[in-house]
Amino acid sequence: QVQLVESGGGLVQPGGSLRLSCAASGSISSINVMGWFRQVPGNERERVARITNFGGTDYADSVKGRFTISRDNARNTIYLQMNGLKPEDTGVYYCSAPIFGLWGQGTQVTVSP
Known about the structure:
This protein is mainly beta. 0% of the residues lie in helices and 49% in strands. It contains no helices and eleven strands. Strands 2, 4, 5, 6, 9, 10 and 11 form a seven-stranded mixed sheet that branches. The radius of gyration is 13 Å and the shape is globular. The chain starts with a strand and ends with a strand. The model has no long low-confidence stretch (mean pLDDT 96).
């Protein structure tokens, strides 16, 4: 079974940028929809962005214009470029292929002065 491993999280000041990566252990070319989710303790996991194999994307209203999701099927990797980060973007970010029940272990993003 394909495993997903996220990286790129960290501590950043408000207004800063981070780029998250999600590397799959196998091919993702047959996985149409992949996405990024985030979770804050005490809250439900929410979808941040998703991307199809054809490059179609959509975003949560809270991140539109600031985050960009992309994928590289040749590298079996998806990315989340996060710009203009805000404290409310803090959380654990997970990569997922939800239809297949595939989830990574998560990477912590903390936005704080």
